[in-house]
Fold each of these.
Amino acid sequence: MVKLHFPSGQNYDCVMCGRGCESLWTIPVEDHVVERIEKHPLGLRVINENGAAFSKNEEGGYVIHYPDPAQPRCGFLAPDKLCSIHAELGMEAKPLTCQQFPFHVTETPDGVYVGVSFFCTSVRENSGRPLSAHEDWLRQLMKTSIRVTTIEADKVLVAPDRHTSWTDFVAFDNQLRQRVQDQGLDLSAQQAIAVTALASQQNPVNLAAGWDQFELEEAPLGGQLASLLETALFALVKLFLHDTSPERIEPLDAAYASGATLDFPEYGWTGTWFQFLRFQDQAVGDNLEDELDRWADMQLHRKSLLVYRSLLDNLWMLALIPRFVRCTTAFFARQNGREQALLEDYYRALEQAEMYLGTNGLLPSRLSPRFTAHLMELL
Ligand code: SF4
């Protein structure tokens, strides 16, 4: 029997909040699901109400239709926040993504790694039973249908067109985890980016050997990578502003570069970036570190560094998401007129990060190549 690896310390049981169904995801829907539901009275009802039950994406596949993207809500979500496909046709009639949410399954040469999305209310609150309690249900689902990402033994994508072996990746990953324990995530992720970028320029790629170039506690590239990440963080903050026109962004860029006053009326913040970072320290402090460590542990456990895009692209997000979450948590506190951030501010920030920057978010594939191009100029 295939071995399933569950992370320790992470719990989950659905609390039926329906939050995932009221968010603007691109949820693929299999053709046979569309065919069955569109012929059923439930499907006809949703088509009558919303004009359509499913839409086509750019690649021509079916996805869940949101009649009003500004207020996303799956047409099949009933007023009691339960799924009407599940209620009327059964669990197996739902699209695969919906059946297995919040689980992510990655098949590797060493077995199957099971993880969960921090977008889920229960996961982020760490409530319910340990993940391993869901093993029987998951094995049952794996017999019929499930979305699995498969990592091949000799084809681990390190950077575009650059591969290494699974064995090399595991040695790299073990060292990364050890460093996260010894020196924290921020510095370890920076070192991992540098190791991966340098290894991708060699032939053959040897990721694990690259760690020998960096002593513990050593900032790679003399701190230049840390500066690049700060600039990347500011670029991310701008993406989430209400107005992203050149008229708004160009003065912000100039103020950031010269250390002058920045104006973020959507968050009620006026001050220099340095002053904002001081405010963030005071509003958030170390309060999120245990939560962000749990988030990072999950990304490493479920092999999200190898999912959807290259290791280098995903490492940027491992380094940036905790920074983005701390910063956005502080902004949300300020938006609500508070000097101290609350858990609800963190949850809002985490939701944005998971939705747009997480492994299946829309932004990493667009942003990471730009950061990589800057990094290559530094190497
Ligand atoms: S977000 Fe999580 S807890 Fe809420 S309904 Fe979905 S699976 Fe259940």
Note: The chain has 15 helices and 13 strands.
Amino acid sequence: MDVLADPRAPQRLRHETRMRLLEVTGVTTLTPRMRRIHLKGDMAGFAAPGHADHIKVFFFPPGVAPRAVPIGPDGAQFAPGERPQMRDYTPRAYDVDKGTLDLDFVLHGDGPAATWAAQAAIGQTLVIGGPRGSLIVPMNFDWYLLAGDETAIPALARRMAELPAGARVLAVIEVDNLSEHQPFAGAADVALTYVYRNGAAAGTGSRILDRIRTMRFPTGTAYAYVAGEAAMSRAVRAHLTEARGFNPDYVRAAGYWQRGMADAQQDH
Ligand SMILES: Cc1cc2nc3c(=O)[nH]c(=O)nc-3n(C[C@H](O)[C@H](O)[C@H](O)COP(=O)(O)OP(=O)(O)OC[C@H]3O[C@@H](n4cnc5c(N)ncnc54)[C@H](O)[C@@H]3O)c2cc1C
């Protein structure tokens, strides 16, 4: 879409990508299922202005010390046997001058990222890369729909915090239970509904879609950001564009993970 033709068109920015070696300076238990890892190091030039930007986090094989390597035309070059696994995370907060970055990890119990986050301790190191780019969604929509599971909370929280006073937001967040609520800062007018799994496995059921189906939407043009388990995101996108009159250009639905599949992410 042409930005000049549509003043509401989201804008893409590219960033120079490099890897950074950061040190864990603190760990905060946000909820029983979510842990904030505070990191510090060389953050010069880091930029993640989009609320749903993501970085790659690198998890090295046992016995291999985390290290940043130059990124060439064929990507990052690692010695055989030292190739790390990569997972996507949202820069929840960062300060380039102070050299700090906070990442919020869901402790879902499986996989290199969740396993690392569960044991992370002060003094350990972590390698990150990116973001490669940012998506800046204008703040001139009549209202905003935000929806997702716990993995989306960092991106949704950033959006709620950056939207100005007077912006109207409907938000639906799926968590396991009441103990997973998090405080959200911001000046926007946010109507937030939680839906609960109550012990059911994450990525099962259709709680977010079911809730959205029952919602009466305000009038005017909206932008929807939906993120979380891939089937949920896909179903919500289909509902919004096929049954609720959303402009497909104004719906971003991201599969942040996929039930039963490691290292899965998709855009719908
Ligand atoms: C753009 C983007 C931003 C993201 N931001 C964040 C973020 O800020 N915080 C965050 O916690 N996650 C975030 N995610 C999701 C995260 O990257 C995935 O959950 C990832 O799969 C975790 O890697 P892992 O090594 O823990 O598990 P994997 O090795 O990828 O998966 C192992 C198993 O765990 C399952 N699994 C993966 N994630 C979950 C989950 N959340 N709940 C239950 N089961 C799961 C998989 O289906 C698989 O069966 C983001 C994803 C994307 C694409």
Note: The longest strand covers residues 19-31.
